[in-house]
């Protein structure tokens, strides 16, 4: 897979390293020439320039890439890069970093963003996930706000324990994606029985999320 990343700061560089390790082709675009001399990013292709400029993206032959990641520390830049990637180059998938949670509402399809990743929100969610056993925690917003990834840790006194997944009436537009048990993830099947302490991950919609929350809350009473 070919991935272009705008912004070679700590976030963009970390993403680039992980993608290279997983055998993806990565291009980093950054304004600062000294970034390209970093020894820890030797396997990455570089283009020094402003990723908000159409000429720079044309020079990068962006139309040949599968994914564009806007990972700078400036939300305005991330929005412009995502919009250009979608509207001018038809990029199939764009990922935008949200630095200020107040700007999260702008990271949608109107600005060409497929997936918005808010570091403050994600960190908050991870903190909540660590302490809020028995509550539904939103981890990630996908597909321009139309889909959420959420997590629920089953309390040890929950009425869900001992019930098979297939016998629970989950809300429409909700799919159970994975269960983590004893630090081991596995894909759930209808016959799997829920145990206390299970971490259950769902994909759901804004409309279905309250119904899922109610289903889980009623089961924990």
Structural notes for this entry:
The chain is α/β, with parallel strands linked by helices. It contains five helices and eleven strands, in the order βαββαβαββαβββββα. The strands form two sheets. A six-stranded parallel beta sheet has the order 3-2-1-4-5-6, sandwiched between helices. A hairpin with a 4-residue loop joins β7 and β8. The radius of gyration is 20 Å and the shape is elongated. About 30% of the residues are buried. The model has no long low-confidence stretch (mean pLDDT about 90).
Quote the distance from N terminus to C terminus: 47 Å
Overall, the morphology is elongated
Low-confidence runs:
none
Helix content: 25-40%
Total E-strand runs: 11
How large a portion of the residues is in β-strands, by DSSP E? 25-35%
Average of pLDDT: 88
Strand order of the biggest β-sheet: 3-2-1-4-5-6
Rg, Å, rounded: 20 Å
H-E string: EHEEHEHEEHEEEEEH
Biggest sheet record: 6 strands, parallel
Q: Which structural class should the secondary elements be placed in? A: alpha/beta
**Number of helices, where a helix is a run of at least 4 consecutive DSSP H or I residues:** 5
């Amino acid at each position: 897979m070919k991935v272009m990343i705008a912004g070679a700061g700590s976030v963009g560089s970390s993403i680039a390293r992980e993608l290279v390790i997983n055998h993806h082709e990565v291009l980093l675009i950054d304004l600062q020439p000294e970034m390209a001399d970093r020894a820890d990013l030797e396997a990455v292709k570089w283009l020094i320039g402003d990723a908000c400029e159409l000429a720079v993206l044309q020079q990068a032959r962006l139309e040949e890439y599968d994914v564009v990641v806007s990972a700078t520390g400036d939300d305005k830049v991330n929005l412009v890069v995502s919009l250009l990637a979608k509207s001018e180059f038809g990029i199939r998938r764009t990922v935008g970093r949200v630095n200020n949670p107040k700007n999260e509402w702008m990271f949608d399809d109107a600005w060409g963003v497929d997936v918005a990743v808010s570091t403050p929100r994600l960190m908050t969610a991870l903190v909540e996930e660590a302490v809020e056993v028995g509550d539904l925690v939103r981890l990630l917003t996908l597909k321009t706000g139309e889909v959420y990834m959420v997590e629920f840790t089953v309390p040890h006194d929950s009425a869900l324990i001992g019930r098979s997944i297939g016998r629970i009436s989950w809300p429409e537009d909700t799919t159970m994606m994975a269960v983590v048990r004893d630090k081991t993830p596995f894909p759930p099947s209808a016959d799997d029985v829920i145990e206390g302490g299970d971490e259950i991950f769902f994909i759901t919609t804004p409309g279905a999320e309250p119904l899922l929350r109610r289903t889980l809350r009623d089961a924990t009473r």
